[in-house]
Each structure stands twice: as C-alpha cells, then as structure tokens.
Amino acid sequence: MDKATIVVHSGDLDKVMSALIIGNGYLAMGGEVTLYFTFWGLQRLIKGRLSKAPLSRMHFFGLGTWMMKRKMKKANVAPPEKLMADFKALGGRIIACEMTMEVMGISKSDLDETLIDEYGAVGMYVNESKKARMTLFI
Amino acid sequence: MLQTIQSDIVVDVVGETCPVPLVEMRKAVMKAKKGDIIEVKGTHPASKQEIPMAVDSLGLELLGIREEDQVWHIFIQK
C-alpha cells in the first residue's frame, strides 16, 4: 500500500488521539505512516505528557477532560499510551519539529526520545509527503 | 468447513473497540509465518467490516467469517 503523513499541530488530547487512531489504521492496512509533531503537538512528546492534555472542546478547567477519560475507559477505548505503543510496534515513524523545540525552549532530553525517529523541519515533512497519497493536518 | 479449521494463531479482541482489533490483527500477521491461519475473534461491529478490507489490502486470503452469540470469528491465511 501507499504512504500517509500527518502533521500533529494540536496538542489537544482528542486530536492527538485522532491522529494516532488514523495512523494505526493506516499501518494496520499495510501502509506507511509518518507523524510530524509540531507546535502544541510537540508538547505531547515531552516525557510523561502524552495524555496530560486538554480537550479541544469542553475542557472546563480539566473537569471535562477527566470526565472524557472516564467515559473512554468505560467504553474500553485504548488510552493514548497504548495507541502510541501500537503505532511504534507497527513501524510508524515520528519526526519532531526542531523549530518548535527552539521556539519553546525544548531540548532533546526533555522529549521521550524512544518515540522519535528523526528531528527535522518543514523540508523533511515535505520530502516525506512527496511519496504520500494522504496527508492530514490535525 | 469453518467449524473444522485449525487456527495457528488466535487473536482475542472480544470487547475491544476501534482501532484495537485491526491493530492486533496486523501484529499477528506480522508474527505469522507464510501459510499460517489466523483467527481473529471479537465483538466490535465496525471491525468485522474493516478487517476483511485490511486483509484485501494486505494481499492475504480471507478464508471466511463465522458468527455466533454476537461474537465474530474471522479466518485469515497469510
């Protein structure tokens, strides 16, 4: 099958989960996937922060997020940690945006480096996307 | 015929929801040897539709689907 690239610009829990679910589905169906974490999305690659995230809507100072996590657990939805572990197990690639690291003062040692395949900028995303049939901005 | 199939690998995703059944199926396929029969059993309705789509796009063989008491069993040959 072909390739997909997804820009993970949002750091919101629901949007990062969507990116991972789509990525995992694409990998499971035999494709290749590269996720490019940039801006607020890059926050989710900081050690221990994958699921420490607000919701894009109905956050309500954390109460909405807490409720949503409970609802998802009840519905047996895989948590972000499992989605991420599966993404890596199926061969998904992750690029961390170096420009965001500079702007936000994030160093490599702040990030969970076990998840990251490469550090790059827009050129790397464009280059990866040349071979992609699907590209999304989340 | 599906009643008598001997599965080499059984993937139990009963109660799991999207995208876990699809992902666990793919992991099992990665581990399997050519010719192995993989049985995926689950309850999530969407997965029953999408696993055969994945089987097709992975170029595997769909041997059949059996369903009883709301549990489906999908048989795949690598």
Describe this structure as you would to a colleague.
The complex is a heterodimer of chains A (138) and B (78). Chain A has 138 residues and is of the alpha/beta class. Chain A has a domain at 13-36 and 86-129. Chain A is 39% helix and 19% strand. Chain A contains five helices and five strands, in the order βαβααβαβαβ. In chain A, strands 4-3-2-1-5 form a five-stranded parallel sheet, with helices on both faces. Chain A is globular, with a radius of gyration of 15 Å. Chain A starts with a strand and ends with a strand. In chain A, 35% of the residues are buried. The longest helix of chain B has 13 residues, at 45-57. Chain B is globular and about 30 Å long. The mean pLDDT of chain B is 94. Chain B is α+β, with helices and mostly antiparallel strands and 78 residues long. Chain B has one domain: Translation Initiation Factor IF3, CATH 3.30.110.40. The two termini of chain B are 18 Å apart. Helices cover 32% and strands 33% of the residues of chain B. Chain B has a four-stranded mixed sheet with strand order 1-2-4-3, covered by helices on one side.
Short summary of the structure?
The complex is a heterodimer of chains A (138) and B (78). Chain A is an alpha/beta fold and 138 residues long. Chain A has five helices and five strands.
Q: Beta fraction of the residues of chain B?
A: 25-35%
Provide the CATH top-level class of chain B.
Alpha Beta
Number of strands of chain B: 4
What does the largest sheet of chain A look like? 5 strands, parallel
Query: Distance between termini of chain A?
Result: 22 Å
Radius of gyration of chain A: 15 Å
Structural class of chain A: alpha/beta
> What is the number of domains of chain B?
1
Question: Per CATH, which architecture of chain B?
Answer: 2-Layer Sandwich
CATH superfamily of chain B, please?
A: TusA-like domain
Task: Compute the number of helices of chain A.
Answer: 5
